[in-house]
Amino acid sequence: MIQLQNVTFAYPSHIQQPVLSHLSLNLRLDICTGLIGRNGTGKTTFGLLLMGLLQPVDGNIYLNGKNLKDSPLHQIGSQIGYLFQNPRQQLFADTIIDELLFPFTLQQTDSCEVRKRADRLLTLFQLDQNRNTNPLSLSTGEQKRLVLAALMMNDPDYLILDEPTNGLDQESRGILGNLITERIMMEKGLLLISHDQPFVNQHCHSVLSMNEKNVREVACAT
Amino acid sequence: MNICASELNFTFPGKRTSLLRDVNFTWKQGQVVVLQGKNGVGKSTLTRIICKALPDDYETCISGCLCLDCVQADHLSADQPAAHESRDEAKKAESARVNLLTIGRRQSAQYISALFPDPDLQILTPDTESELAFGLEQQGIPVNRMNDMINEIISELSLKPLRYRNPRLCSGGEKQLILFAAILLMNRPFLILDEALAMIDNSRIDKVKEMIARHKRASAGLLLIDHQGRFDDIADEVWSLKEGHLTLQSRCQMRELK
Amino acid sequence: MQLDPRAKMLPVCLMTSLAIIRNSTFELFVILILALSLAFLVRASLAKVFFKLRHLLSTFLGIFIVQLIFNRSGEALLTAGNRVIVTDSGLENGLGFVLRMMIILLCGTVLATSSSQDTVNSLVQLKLPYTLAFMVITAISFIPLMGREVSHTLVSLQLRGINLKKIPARQKVRAFTYLFFPVIMQTLDKAQELSIALDLRGFRSGFKRTSRIKLRLRYTDWLVMALSVLLFIMALWV
User: Fold this and answer.
1) Does the distance separating the beta carbons of A171 and B201 come in below 8 Å?
2) Is the CB of residue B97 less than 8 Å from the CB of residue B111?
């Protein structure tokens, strides 16, 4: 569970206009939470806070009971997967298969089991036809699927998807939808940052709405 | 003015199968076209061929014909009496035809402008106002008129809070909105928006649509790609790209199907 | 105080050329004081800049020490037994180097206080071709972009669950390729896309460009410029 306790955040340049003020909420691991709001209200900022990439001005964020401030980035990264708006920022390797495997080969934790998982994920995300292509030559939608597959290699407890449907066609949306359902069944949570209302309504069990002043829960479908 | 393509082919270097095969279309001024297709089917490549935004070394991968007709062909034959239809006229019509595949990007940008999905790569200046002014300054628009145009579009899209901010530090949707405003101001006859409005939220999309419709009435041609299908209702034509082939449907046909 | 970019460029040019012409430590020190006061005048955020460049500053210190130890000409200042450790010309050369570098750094910070847009406009008003001015300024603003790209990539690498400190030595080189491959690719990509975006927005389209912002020199600008020319002439005289 991710717990926010009395979190306040403001950018140093706009210290008078906090993006979040005294926010306390829990993000459950067994449901898919949606985060909606108008452009510029700080949805992405919220996601970056949860990853420990931005530090709250006041208050604390706990990930599975541990304060985010005390966790190194790689530890947070292996527990929470974050899909950035621009997938190109998250692609490192020169082939699709290496993109999934290189964290393991680098740390020499590569094993048969890891390779099997990579194969399974490539099939799941329908990327297994040409696994030696350069990720940068893929289209945006395919790149997003690849990053998702790479994030799933760590089997994270939580996934934060920032505008995931952006640039995805109906079919890729379907794949993403399947992933969400599958994860919920495994009791692993997601945060869906999006303004794609139909997609959020379809997949989220709880929706948070963000405006200039605060975050509040708007709906809770069963 | 029309943009016509006939038998347009494109193959990535080192690949055996073509991405685009014998693509034919006519894109008229005053027409809103929505381009549909799955991920990776070549929509972006097609739009980049049209506005010449492919890297230079891909030029040789394109074959076929892509032209800009400055004189409407049917207009010529219908309105000119047969007696006047001399060889000179034919020559004139020929000279008014610009081959988009041979002219440079800077030249083609006089007719066609475009926005692409990633706003970060397209922001040129450190404040919103200069960003809006950039294209106008290049065209040599007088300063007074430029200021009026900028003020108008800022109030129309309610960009006032962003006016003096650095667009690079705005959120994704705001960046796209600023770029949209900047490209509309340039007032080119043809405009391509390749997923360039995808992050704009629903509260502003109606305003954006209204401005697109107005732009169209001012006889501009627009080509939109949007996976959320948010612009289907204002489209005059829907083109769908599948396995390298482009099929065209006019709006009337779409209605009949329904 | 807000100064016109041109009112910053003139004193900066004069100070840097003086710093190259003049050799004595005292004169360089005076120029440093002048540069510092100019930086304070335009409210440059010195602390931030020096924090960012702290590694560069330690390099300066290293060069200073090397000069101090290995310069053998001149009279001995510090001796240990019969061995000369520090000579006066070594000290002078070392100090000269550090002072010059500091002056150049300060001048750069002063110029950086104007927005890139204003700098382009002022260069154009100085009759420099617009395309050249724009491209030079854009190229300069690309450098910090690359630095940001490196730190972004580092962060996203760690978010993949990679503990950079625990990578075995044999794999370190490979880890670097995963850091620099995306950075280089993305920088090239950005440059390409930027040039496309520029063309599509009508850059160099052949029209006579109009400029929305017309910078005007105010009294303070004139004052600063006059003062710097006066000081420059005096410095040449002395």
Assistant:
1) no
2) no
